[in-house]
Amino acid sequence: MDLEGFEELLSGPGQALLAEAAEADVSEDGLLGTASRLRERYPAALVAAALTQVRLRARAREKFGDDAARMYFTQAGLEQSTRACVAEYRARRFAAYLDGGRVLELGCGIGADLAARARAGCRGEGVERDPLTAAVARANLTALGLSDLASVRQGDATEEDPAGFAAVFADPGRRTSRGRVFDPRSYEPPLDVVLELVGRAPAGCVKAAPGIPYEAVPEGTETEWISVAGDVKEAALWSGALAGRARRRATLLDGRGRVWTLAPEEDPGTAPVREWGRYLYEPDGAVIRAHLVAEVAAAVGGGLADEHIAYITGDALVATPFAAAYEIDEVMPFSVKRLRAELRRRRIGTLTVKKRGSAVDVQRLRHDLGFGGKGRRTSGHGEQELTLVLTRVGKAPVALLTHPKDLPSLEQHKASARDTS
Q: C-alpha angle 394/397/401, rounded to 5°?
């Protein structure tokens, strides 16, 4: 889809076609027939654009919920956009700081963050280099009823002057035609260029990949790793007046409005090393990236079985949103033969394998233990379920036979509870 085709989609006939396509069968089996019927009354290019938009909206529902049905997307724009719950969380942090000031967004993409801030009451202006993506972002602001609070224009982010803006938000591109980009110097624009631009404003935030090298983060910046339902989605580099007192922050969102934040103002140091206890705690990826495993270990009264591996063990089941808990049935030296015999003895029919600090090929191990790719036993009988954890203590590989434990319910922790000033 090009810019001209998108603008035609926004026209009266285009909107009528889009509404009709939204009610049609666009599954793999029905797509061809639907396209043929629509092309009898609409231009082929317009039909293709509408059907592409309907299919993108269906995919976008996971990120944007009900809003996806009225938003517009490009393939790349959807892949790189911030999911709604993360954008809303970040927008609240901007809103808590701003007092009527405007936010300049460099590289606004399809406008997900721009829209979230507008909904939080923050006025803003987005800049996007690609003409089609800029048009899509403008259409999204209109569709969501936010055009009076935010606007989008085409331009080069590197040529922008943040003067006059209360804050700057930047989301440099991290994907090319060859796939994801992991080196911050290969971001578009490069991370150091973006940080220099953002640094000219009184406050700022840069969205980065969760695997950003620690050495790429400048002094005086707060780095926040954000996970959604246990999956680390991104890192946010906060600067100026938006940076909190903590240098590292782990924020967990459950995707349903609950937020938990771990942001110690002092370095928690290192966790103690101890023998295996009754429970195994697996810290959330955001906690691990933020180097806050020791804080979680202290909270559950536990320690590490190996000082270099982020598995916590303890003797009590303690409520925490920052780690998943497993009850340890047995700890044994790693041996395929012994494991196979033990799983048969226990009549294990469903096996989940997790590992950290282990070089074992999980797919091959499942096969060797008699389980298929989905963890179901390929032959024989077994009704029980088990989580097999592979790790090591020192140089010795070990296997833990465990069962997931539901932690006691937790009250919501506000993101601002400890450190947002």
A: 120
3-class secondary structure per residue, 366-417: HHHHCECCCCEECCCCCCEEEEEEEEEECCEEEEEEEEEECCCCCCCCCCCC
Q: Report how far residue 21's alpha carbon sits from residue 88's, in angstroms, rounded to the nearest whole number.
A: 30
In whole angstroms, give the CA distance from residue 305 to residue 302: 10
State the amino acid at position 68 in one-letter form: A
Helix (H, G, I), strand (E, B) or coil at 53: helix
Please state whether the predicted TM-score (pTM) of the whole model is above 0.85. Answer: yes
pLDDT (tens digit per residue) in 37-88: 999 999 999 999 999 999 999 999 999 999 999 999 999 999 999 999 999 9
Q: Is residue 135 exposed (0-12), middle (13-18) or buried (19+ Cβ within 10 Å)?
A: buried
* Beta-ladder partners of 420: none
Q: Can you give 54-117 as a three-state secondary structure string?
A: HHHHHHHHHHHHHHHHHCCCCHHHHHHCCCHHHHHHHHHHHHHHCCCCCEEEECCCCCHHHHHH
Tell me which H or E stretch contains 293. Answer: helix 293-299
What is the model's pLDDT at position 412?
39
Q: What is the pLDDT of residues 170-220, one digit of tens each?
A: 999 887 666 777 888 889 899 999 999 999 999 999 999 999 999 999 988
**AA letter at 172:** P
Helix (H) or strand (E) holding 238: strand 231-240
Q: Please work out, in degrees rounded to the nearest 5, the angle formed at the alpha carbon of residue 403 by the alpha carbons of 397 and 404.
A: 110
* Residues 167, 89: Cα–Cα separation, whole Å: 17
Query: How much of the chain, in percent, has pLDDT values that exceed 70?
Result: 94
Residue with tokens 């942090």: 93
* CA end-to-end distance (rounded Å), the chain: 44
Report which of 325, 326, 276 is spatially closest to residue 296, judged by C-alpha positions: 325
